Amino acid sequence: MEKRLRSSLQTSAESFLASAIKLSLKSAKPSLKSLIHNIKPSSDLCTSLPLSLHTCISKSISSFKNPSNPTTPSSPPSKKPRRPSRNSTAQVENAQEKPTQKSLLHNLQIYAYVALISTRHPKGAFSPQDLFLGVRELHDNLILFESDSVLLSEISNLCEEWWKRELVGREMLISQFLPFLVSRSLTLRKKVDVHRVYALRDAFVLFDFEDESIEDLKLLLVRCVITPLYLKTEDGRKFIAFMFGLSVQLLKESLALIKSQIPFGRKSMLEAYGEIVFRGWKSVDGDLRREIEDGFLQGLIEGATLASSASLAASIRRVLGAFTNQRTVEGVEKLLFRLAEPVIFRSLQVANTNARHNALHLLLDMFPLEDPDATKEAKDTLLEKQFFLLEKLLKDDCPDVRLVAVEGCCRILRLFWEVIPSSTITKMITIIFDDMSHDVSNEVRLSTLNGIIYLLGNPQAHELLKVLLPRLGNMILDPVLSIRIAVTDLLLLIMDVRGFQFNKIVNLDVLLTTLANDQSPVAQKVTQLLLPSYFPLKVDKAEACTRFVTLIKRAPMAGARFCEFAGSEGASSMYLLELVRVLTNLVLSPDRVDANLNKGIFVAILHLCGSLMKESSTRAALKELFSGEMLKGLLAASTLGHAQSLLFDIISVVSPVKESGLLEECIALVTNCRDLSEDNERQAELRSAHKLVLFCNWFDDMFEALTTLLQETAVGCSNYFDIEVPRQLVPSTKRKKGSSSKMSGKGKYGDGKMPLAFQDNYQNAVGIAWQIRDLLASESSRKAMFKSKAFKLAVASLKLISEVSIEHCMCCDFMDSSLVDAYMALSLLISVQNISFDNVGEHSNRKTNGLDSGSFPEASDTESALAETLDHLLSCTERIFSTGGLAKFGSVFSGCKQCSKKTTLPHKKKHVDSCSDASCVGDDGSAFSYRTRMLNMVKILTAVLKFIVDVAALNFLSHGPQRCLSFTSAYLQNMVSTLKRSSRDELKFQEEQLREIHACLKSSFSYAAKLINVVLMSINEDSPAATEAYGVANHLLNLIASVELYCGSGYASRLVTLAKQWLPDVVLALASRCILKDSLEDIISQHVSNEGQMHIHPWLSILANIELHEMRHAALDEEEDDKAVEKEKFPAFKKLMKLMIQVLRINHEILDIVGLMFLIGSATGLQMKDFGLLSGLVHFVFVKLARHDETHLGKLNMMLAYLQELYPQVESCVEETENSADGLHELIGVKALLQPVWLYSCEMRDVA
User: Per the record, which residues fall in region Disordered (predicted)?
Assistant: First the structure.
């Protein structure tokens, strides 16, 4: 290829170009460069090649512009070839073909490259004047070649080379080239293009930016201002700054664009803009500089003070930072003083908080603000003014201003301590230490500490700070965590400063208290602070351990917390292992330690073991340490200070080689669990024991021990309450004596006295129930429980105990709902996780004591098992309700030996005569509190209701919801009865007991409403709603009304707030019996009895009384009204009715059904001659519930139809009572309310 080119070059320039265009540009570049650079200055080609190049370029461009009439260049003359060409015929044919657009662009690529390497000839063989014509033609037609990026690149390289070599006519090669290059840099976003633009910056000066034809270039240049690549690169920022000097108009547009970007710019972008403006300001003068100063910078300073948000003000200051950080540059300080001084001093004293806050930031950025040309006296006066304003702002009303002021003052003191007068320093620092450190604002106190930490960086301030820092000691007890962390940071800083002692700033006892009780971030820093003193690594291990023992004896819990963070703060693992040995020896030493120290040592050992077990180098030694006799000794020592749970945790972490006596200790701990529910410390101990048991695979042993106690309690229940014992609960040793599983009831409990042993067993079972509930919360313990062979026996025992707890709760003070809760939780979890009793315990090889699995009621179908549990619980509660419910004293069974001998109150006696605490005394002399038993019963029934709702929510109500709804209704009725008795002083509940009852009421309301929701979700034509849902809804409304009637509006208002979310379900339940009924007669039959009357629930009577009360007040004139001011009746229930009206108006069909219920109730009042009930309900329906516009009334078909029966009855009753004053006024009022609606209904009937 190179030989052919060389041959054509020796022939002529035209032949050389013709041969070159037949090659691809990439492959031809090396050969073309080599051949052209080897041309000697004396060669004829130095003259002919530029001319031929110009001719070829011109003809190619002409052909490109006019593709339909191409003017192909004539074939250059050639000598006769030395040998015939094999492809001569093909070449002739190709020469005769018309060139395409693509081939023309390719030719121009070759010509542009030839021109470029000719320009770069190392000996300057080619005259620029000869090359210029072709180069200029390429440049002038640059815009035509936008589709060919390669050609554009070659032409731009050629023009760039021409400009850099300062060749003739270079100013004529920029009009098309520079806009292309700028556009290329904006499009391709390559740093090299930005660098090329900046390198050619001087060429932009030649443009006339006032001419209209320059607009496209101006738009490209303005785009550079917001292009990230220009802002990120040094050359890009320099070029934008250079642009500022090209034109005033271009400068204004660029500055306006920068200003518009400030509110949204990132930190790097804003700093880049500041640098650009500063560079531009330095490089221009005259009008351009004045535009930057008075137009842009002045606006920024004013905007920084008047900004509506702190973020916007900070963004503006970031741009101004380029000037404030370059104050040493000549002219900058004077500029800032001239622009900022009047604005800042004026804004610092205005009433607007934002303006003061923003102006303070500006002052601190520019401090000291001074005129470099002013006299010393003027400068001192101005400086005093600034200090005066700073001191004033330290006491500003706005916390944000004080926050900035205190940080700013500390910064000024650190930077200018040497030049600030001592009196000013004293005054300012006194305010900071005495006032700002006690500021009411948390942020200001935190800023004070941060400022003092920054001030410590100036050594000249140390002498004064050494005196003042103890004033900050109490801040380590600040309630704000971040402030306490800042105090510890301050102490850590001064620990490394010569002459300071941290214990003189914060008392050591305070530090130890903080270490023991504070949160981890603070405690860790305090540990870092105390580590060099109490566990130094520069002494031997024995000395370090001795020092720590001193610490833990002085403050046991602080020492324990110290061990938690010692490893993470750099303490050696070998030192920590030695410390574990020392502490265990201290616990086992003959010298007795007190309980607090003993507990602290165990906590410390636990923390140390947790840290050391992460290190492979100390793991084996630690395991060996906690084994054999050492472990036995620790077991004995752990009984002091309730440290057993800590030891169990240690063993779980360490997993020692040999365990000795641990299982017995764990079982002893978990089986002695009386009075557990309120003892958080013992609960933590039991959880640790559970964790250890699971870790050591001893769960079956522990659960069998717990189950055995439950079995004993169940057998005790059957003996004492004369209940048949299920066969699987009778121990095998007793079962062998006889086939009957019925206890005689005349054994050791036959004397009828309550044995203390049974009571102890029951209370212990309560603790076991708590443990079962806690074990169910963890997946691992839950699985272990289900795998245990004792699981069936545990469920059976809980079943019997739960039955006794429910049915005999009113005869024993110690009966508890926890056992019922555990029984229900187990049953529910078995069903939810689809666990069959057939598979329970199949992974365990252990045998339970006397458990006869064949007698256990197997239930492979988990849903039927859950239904059996629910049936059992409902049967127990139904027996209570059927014999008087909560209103009955004692047990419901005459067979109960304890209850049969109790002294019960006569039914006719309403008040307790001799016992002020409503207690009854048995004939054995023991007292029992009826209030306590009533509360226990309420808790148990609430738990049963929750269980019912859980079962219903899981769709496990296999036999329908009627029975569950009936239980709910009975329970709510009994609660209303209980509240009534409490209000009559038959039950003098204590305040705490009353709060617990109302907590159960709130929970019960939610559960009952949720049950209604679940039941109503299943309504359809094939499965209508249970009629019991209507009763539950009425009883819920009765409950709210009764709470307000018997307990006051305070309790009722809280219940109404809860009821608001469930009100749509309650309203729907009121209409549930009639939703699928088509005829009016069917709906009426759902509400009235055989006597034709509707049962009037208490809430309807209360609603009628509320309406009557309102009507009477409305009838009073102003004078009488002033005298008859009464307290509003039932405000909470009235609020509930307003909410019900809003809900009913959402759906006119439901409104029609419920409104009909109110009208049927009013008709019942008319029949019973209860005109108050009639008047109140009619007033509620037609004044509040139903609007009187035709659009609304026309949709209430059933109400209007029933009104055809009701209105004539009212008219007739009015005529009958005309001669009687009783009720006549109410009847006339009812007739007046009904008449317009009745007339409208008649019109509607006639139209139909």
Answer: 64-100
